[in-house]
Amino acid sequence: MRLLLVVLLLVAAASHLLLPFGALREAQAVDPGLADLILIQLRLPRTLLALGYGATLGISGAALQAMFANPLASPDISGASSGAALGAVIGGYWLGLAQPLLLAACGAAGALGTLALLVALAGRRADTATLLLAGLALALAAGAATSLALALAPSPFAFYDAFDWLMGNFADRSLAQAAAALIPASVASILLLRRAHALDLAALGEDVAASLGLKPRHLAMEVIALSAIAVGACVSVAGAIGFIGLVAPVFGRSISRGHPGSAMIPAALTGAILLAAADLVVRAVPLDRPIPVGVVTALFGTPLFVWLVVTMRRRVTA
Amino acid sequence: MTSLVARQIALPGRLQPTDLDIQSGELVALVGPNGGGKTSLLRALARIENASGVVAIDGEDLDLAPLARRRRLLSFLPASRDVIWPIAARDVIALGLDRHNPARIDELVALLELDSLAGRPVNRLSTGERARVLLARALIGNPQILLLDEPLSNLDPYWVLRIVSILETIAQSGQSVLVALHDLSQLPRFGRALLIADGKVQMDETPASLMASERFETVFRIHAARGGWEVRSQADRRSSR
């Protein structure tokens, strides 16, 4: 199953980079330098961002779910993505920052603030209803604050400008922007992966984990800070993309035989494949204007989310 | 040989400063009314919270023991049976080991008669079945001290009796076992009993002398009658104050 995921990932990466192939061949015929330019300057950052952001959502989603002991916790439903968007909007439109790494830091700060508020509101091992309600309230508040920040921004074009980015977009991103998103995200993700076994043990409850010498409070703060850095950096470059962080860990756990921490690697592979596939759909749709990739993930993700909620409710009432 | 030494362990508002020594091979019951401090004492001994004082097992300060060593010194079973993730029962038991040891897992699966449940997701088992799986996880590492919070609750009579005899065997092998329990009918099978109330160990006796004492009846607000227990009347309670 893991092997299948790796194969699918390679197929997704190759398709994302090379399709449509016709354009590349034509460019190659005209000028070999032009084909390289398209491949390296245009397509490579987009492919790297789609795969890296997807993997980041998978890992941080799985880590947050393990930490909250709740399969509905995820970067979007916890409000972290909305908080990151707010942070990046304030950084970009109010503080006038243009450096991708500084914007990534603003995104991470926004996500961190929202996650810290979520824990303060709902607690570390919140029941589903409390977690969903608190996350929803934070996401709505951050969304409204983002709109307000854009409406009142010094630049009159802020709103129009940001719409394209807020719902998720990988088009026209530079290699420097991809690096600003993916270097912090990779470092944070690797540090999260090192806590896989601790998060597996946390499945037995915080008391058992603590009796084994782990520090559940430290672990929770680590997961929150690292997820915020990873997701915040990606959101600042490519916008808030929903559902991947919720759905990929579900697949991840089916491969890790239910272990919530070990689910991070298969969730990362699944997230990367899903987001690359969603972006391929965006590019394949024959429309004059591109649709945001976040719309595609929401279209496919909503039914899965409903299915998750229904199965959870059945389990509770059974 | 002294196995566990606790000195002045305390949790503000829940557990008064307590000293406790447990010898290796002892099977100790911890009884007391709801909210009396049984779980707090076990949590303080397992260093789950930042309790003050010192806990040493086999002469090693638990706070200073490395993670891998800690598993050999102590195991804690919480009263909660909740596991929300669909992990197979066998894999849950394996979480109690620091390295893969299928033979040892098979041993525990056989001991707790979990053969037919071993492959099933633990969150789909009944509470009693899950209780046995979680107990197996706590036992598998053969630690020096077992701290078990209500391992007999949610179990049918067969399993209540079986698990007490399993704990007797474990104690005979030299491990020490401290068990919080509510089922007083099993108390006589323990070698020693602690009565805890108001966050303080009130008595530390053999089960027989504990149950015969006036203090025991006052703390629990019951008294021995017709071969069992009865609730004490208001008048009894007033006269004993």
Annotation keywords:
heterodimer, A: 318 residues, mainly alpha, ABC transporter involved in vitamin B12 uptake, BtuC, 14 helices, 0% strand, B: 241 residues, alpha/beta, Rossmann fold, six-stranded mixed sheet, four-stranded antiparallel sheet, 9 helices, 27% strand
What is the CATH fold-level name of chain B?
A: Rossmann fold
Quote the distance from N terminus to C terminus of chain A. 31 Å
CATH H level, superfamily name of chain B:
P-loop containing nucleotide triphosphate hydrolases
Q: What's the CATH architecture of chain B? A: 3-Layer(aba) Sandwich
CATH topology of chain A: ABC transporter involved in vitamin B12 uptake, BtuC
Q: How widely separated are the two ends of chain B?
A: 39 Å
What string, H for helix and E for strand, traces the elements of chain B in order? EEEHEEHEHHHEHEEEHHEEH
Taken together, the total number of domains of chain B comes to: 1
Walkthrough of the structure:
The complex is a heterodimer of chains A (318) and B (241). The longest helix of chain A is centred in the first third of the chain and has 37 residues, at 32-68. The two termini of chain A are 31 Å apart. Chain A has helices at residues 2-18, 21-30, 32-68, 80-94, 100-122, 128-151, 158-166, 175-193, 196-201, 206-211, 216-238, 244-255, 264-284, 293-317. Chain A has a single domain, classed as ABC transporter involved in vitamin B12 uptake, BtuC (Orthogonal Bundle). In chain A, helix 2 (21-30) packs antiparallel against helix 3 (32-68). By secondary structure, chain A is an all-alpha fold. The longest helix of chain B is centred in the C-terminal third of the chain and has 16 residues, at 157-172. A six-stranded mixed β-sheet of chain B has the order 6-7-8-3-9-10, sandwiched between helices. A four-stranded antiparallel β-sheet of chain B has the order 2-1-4-5, covered by helices on one side. In chain B, strands 11-12 form a two-stranded antiparallel sheet. Chain B has nine helices and twelve strands. Chain B has helices at 38-45, 67-73, 89-94, 102-111, 127-139, 157-172, 207-212, 214-220, 234-240; strands at residues 2-11, 15-23, 27-31, 52-57, 60-61, 74-77, 145-149, 176-180, 192-197, 200-205, 222-225, 228-231. In chain B, strand 11 (222-225) and strand 12 (228-231) form a beta hairpin. Chain B has a single domain (2-240), classed as P-loop containing nucleotide triphosphate hydrolases (Rossmann fold), CATH 3.40.50.300. With 241 residues, chain B is of the alpha/beta class. Chain B is globular. Chain A binds chain B through residues 69-71, 200-201, 203-205, 207-208, 210-214, 253, 257-260, 315, and chain B through 43, 46-49, 65-67, 70-71, 74-78, 80, 82-88, 91-92, 95, 121, 123, 134, 137, 147.
